[in-house]
Amino acid sequence: MPLWPTAITYVASNLFIAIIWINHHYLMRFAVAPSLKLIRINFVHLFMVSLLPFATAWIARTQLASSP
Description:
Structural class: mainly alpha
Number of helices: 3
Number of strands: 0
Largest sheet: none
Distance between the termini: 22 Å
């Protein structure tokens, strides 16, 4: 029972990453030829998504406190 904040934030982050992954694949179907700019934007996007576990770990650690 004391791990419920960790479990909830893990499920929420996994759901969020799944939604991003589905949207990413849907949008990339419309890219005819990937340009260098599109590849760079894609790498930045993937980097931002990779930061999600750190944010959810912080939320679980503070147990959804109003201030850090």
